[in-house]
Amino acid sequence: MLKAGPLPHDERGRLLSGGHHDPHKLLGAHLARSGVELRVLRPYARSVTVLAKGLRAELHEDGDGLFSGVLPMRTAPDYRLLVAYDGEDGEGTHEVETHDPYRFLPALGELDLHLIGEGRHEELWRAMGAHIMTHQGVTGTRFTVWAPNARGVRIVGDFNHWDGSGHPMRSLGSSGVWELFVPGVGDGTLYKFQIMRPDGSHTVRADPMARRTEVPPANASIVTESRYVWRDEEWMAHRGDRPAHQAPFSVYEVHLPSWRPGLTYRQLALQLPAYVKDLGFTHVELMPLAEHPFGGSWGYQVTGFYAPTSRMGTPDDFRYLIDALHRAGIGVIMDWVPAHFPRDDWALAQFDGRPLYEPEDPSRAAHPDWGTLEFDYGRNEVRNFLVANAAYWCEQFHIDGLRVDAVASMLYLDYSREHGEWTPNERGGRENLDAVAFLQEMNATVYRRCPGVVTIAEESTAWDGVTRATHEVGAGGLGGLGFGLKWNMGWMHDSLGYVEHEPVHRKFHHHEMTFSMVYAYSENYILPISHDEVVHGKRSLVSKMPGDWWQQRANHRAYLGFMWAHPGKQLLFMGQEFAQGAEWSEAHGPDWWLLDPSYAAEPDHRGVRQLVHDLNTVYGRTAALWERDTDPEGFAWVDGGAAEDNVFAFLRFDAARTPLLSVSNFSPVVREGYRLGVPEWIPVWSEVLNTDASRYGGGDVLNEGPVTADPTPSHGRGSSVCLTLPPLATVWLRPV
């Protein structure tokens, strides 16, 4: 065999240093005057032999792992390589027969590259990352990564002993995308990308598009292929039958790694659906499950945006859990974190040596509160990365809702920044117009692609139009953000502030419980008692309450009764359903021992849990409590001004005007013969729920039997009822 001509010195140097943009130009088979010139890069090989139909020829060694030769052919053949390495004991040789990665055409199409460049590839996960496929008749894995500032990119992994010198990738034009199809690499392979930065230094990075990762603190990406067969067809077909804001919607918020510490996704599937179904919640909300390196971040500092955390199993194991929840009739909401990402030097920060996912301006890039980096929402590819990620979770994992974390920090250029630390937008304002456009696009895309999915904003300010349609322009000249629901942080703050006061002082804070109705219909709201309210010295919900243990539990029960009757959907964090006294800690999760029958105070905690079950049960059966949550006609005060009595009384109505009367007495005294005006067309009422019932741990001060209205006018109505109001309790009545 003839020896191939030498590579130009600079090209050879760039190839060997990992800084060449087109290794396929140098490696593989190429037509030459004298035949087919073949060049192979196989570091540490003793010899390389070409195998083709009717041909077996050993290549010449050119040094530095390069081997070459000229085949006496007019066209490049289908060929394989027989590579010989030194034996493990230093004696003899070990031979491997394999395909040459550099004989394949690009495995990523022009349409994919066009859509990526425009930032419009809604199924980006199918184009980027590691994908097992059959390409040109050969099975292997296509690796792709976006690194436009890189001088070169190589793949390192357990398949090449973490030495990428033999696997440089090619740059696909001006797209910034690098690609290499590696034959023989399959499911379970560990890999990373070795990137040469613009300054010539190297960095090794996990795949931003990895769909599976190692268990932290290890951080390699893993080639994966789903084999899961879903069994939730009925759920998926009907989940969008009724819009979320017009449906019963009560949410149990869960930090999955600590709900039952040590359980896998599949083990959790045997316990969580049954527990949530028994409590009567319609949905679970899972705190972020995208891969994150530090468990103490609770998942809110994400490094693997496309990978469910491997702490509890594989992506298919996670699918199994969601499937089980769906088959139990429970929707799944997942916290999603597009506001920021951590600075780990193996993840997204300055990914290819320059700011890429983050803005170039350091003052814009640095998130002032969490020591993390913000996304550059104005860059097409970054926006695409996030929009496609939202669709990915909904489509590939059948997620029913995305609760978007920290929306306020995205919307404002001056968020947590002092004067002089931020630059106004092109209109001279403080709004982050790029973030607004991103959120609008994300919501529009998810609602178009994923029928029945709801998006939920954790937005802590009075931003106009969070749940308004994106095409409806508000007073500020911006369209709505397009979310389906919004956390009502104002209600949460005000109502918790009220119940934390001693009853004797509550009359001075009465407005804190009624103010929410001033703006209750400005957005589609969820009332959240979330993890944020029961950590970091804020105390658990029952421990916020004043008084002795009996009064604390009574306040806790009365508050939940008020919350479930108030316009808006409900969210309760795990452990609060049975009045856990301690703050939550991700280190050990809820205090399940409180429900152990051998514990003396177990009935106190089980009583609160029973109340949550009954609240959800009555709630689900009573359309007045959810059908018109976003319609002012669905609510009417009976008495919102009884500050001296610490009493709140209001009516809820369904679409047929059938009412439910809710009365909360936040004073520790029984109020006999308490008269309240009611609709004239309802002659008889009955108590359907009373948080003072003995089965909940209360004093059993009840309104037994039918409650008959009489024609005595009260509260502007022509008829009224006289009730007995238990101390520190909420009572619900509905027509007989």
Basic shape? elongated
The fraction of residues in strands falls at 25-35%
Radius of gyration: 31 Å
| Low-pLDDT regions | none
Please, could you describe this protein's structure?
By secondary structure, this protein is an alpha+beta fold. The protein is 22% helix and 26% strand. The strands form 8 sheets. An 8-stranded parallel barrel has the order 17-18-21-22-23-24-25-26. A 6-stranded antiparallel β-sheet has the order 27-28-29-34-31-32. Strands 1-2-6-5 form a 4-stranded antiparallel β-sheet, with no helix packed on it. Helix 10 (380-396) packs parallel to helix 12 and helix 18 runs parallel beside helix 19.
Any descriptors?
single chain; 736 residues; alpha+beta; 8-stranded parallel β-barrel; 19 helices; 34 strands
Chart the SSEs and their pairings.
Blueprint: H1 9-17, E1 28-32, E2 35-41, E3 45-52, E4 55-58, E5 60-63, E6 66-71, E7 79-86, E8 93-98, H2 110-118, H3 124-127, E9 129-135, E10 138-146, E11 152-157, E12 170-171, E13 177-183, E14 190-196, E15 202-205, E16 221-222, H4 233-238, E17 250-254, H5 256-259, H6 265-268, H7 272-279, E18 283-286, E19 290-291, E20 304-308, H8 315-327, E21 331-336, H9 362-365, H10 380-396, E22 401-404, H11 407-411, H12 433-449, E23 454-457, E24 485-487, H13 489-499, H14 503-506, H15 511-514, H16 516-519, E25 525-529, H17 541-544, H18 549-565, E26 569-573, H19 602-621, E27 635-642, E28 647-653, E29 659-665, E30 671-678, E31 684-690, E32 707-708, E33 719-725, E34 729-735
Parallel strand pairs: 17-18, 17-26, 18-21, 21-22, 22-23, 23-24, 24-25, 25-26
Antiparallel strand pairs: 1-2, 2-6, 3-4, 3-7, 5-6, 7-8, 9-10, 10-13, 11-14, 12-13, 14-15, 14-16, 19-20, 27-28, 28-29, 29-34, 30-33, 31-32, 31-34
